[in-house]
User: Which sequence fits this backbone?
């Protein structure tokens, strides 16, 4: 028992020092989880737990995306499970802030990638509105509601009010399909046209509607959906 303690003595310090020196580039997936779990499991060897998490969920991303109950059923404490569930949300907040600070002007050709990042960690259908000024600078980007965009009547008034309050020139609407089916429905197409018409009443042009699912997206404008609606 004493020998085992000696073997692991200083292991956490070495792992932290290794991270501080080289980052995570040369870490295996289980080592990343092992290091993370140091901060919620203070006095246990987290290496076996990390190995078992990868064995159970197959991929490190699947560990982070697992439901809270699946993690607690696995045997993690609620505190540990919450820490793991924080990671995708922290990534999304970080990317949001990074995007807004470093590139306030939007390239409309890449707006799909921008919108895709806004849905990291979101597990329910969510509608996001992006507003731009005449120079394509971001005026507002935020959640306007949860639930299917197919219920567009629910969001129309809010979308128009926010767009008018920012004196926006352009708008992009995004929503996600948590089901994993990315193809736009007939209802998605119909609601896009309704939203475009509603925004036009306050002088705002809808530039695109982006549907996100997992790590992929469909741009209505690039896919030539809604006919000539998005053509200059």
Assistant:
């Amino acid at each position: 028992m004493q020998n085992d303690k000696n073997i692991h003595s200083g292991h956490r310090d070495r792992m932290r020092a290794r991270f501080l020196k080289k980052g995570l580039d040369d870490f295996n997936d289980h080592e990343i989880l092992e290091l993370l779990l140091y901060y919620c499991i203070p006095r246990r060897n987290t290496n076996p737990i990390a190995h078992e998490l990868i064995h159970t969920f197959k991929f490190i991303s699947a560990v982070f995306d697992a439901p809270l109950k699946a993690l607690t059923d696995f045997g993690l404490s609620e505190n540990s499970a919450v820490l793991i569930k924080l990671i995708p949300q922290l990534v999304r907040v970080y990317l949001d802030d990074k995007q807004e600070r470093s590139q306030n002007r939007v390239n409309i050709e890449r707006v799909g990638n921008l919108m895709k990042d806004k849905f990291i960690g979101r597990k329910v259908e969510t509608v996001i509105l992006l507003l731009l000024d005449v120079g394509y600078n971001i005026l507002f980007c935020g959640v306007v509601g949860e639930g299917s965009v197919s219920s567009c009547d629910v969001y129309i008034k809010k979308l128009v009010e926010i767009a008018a309050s920012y004196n926006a020139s352009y708008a992009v609407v995004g929503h996600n399909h948590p089901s994993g089916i990315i193809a736009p429905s007939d209802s998605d197409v119909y609601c896009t046209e309704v939203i475009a018409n509603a925004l036009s009443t306050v002088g705002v042009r809808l530039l695109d509607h982006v549907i996100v699912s997992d790590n992929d997206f469909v741009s209505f404008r690039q896919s030539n959906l809604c006919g000539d609606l998005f053509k200059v």
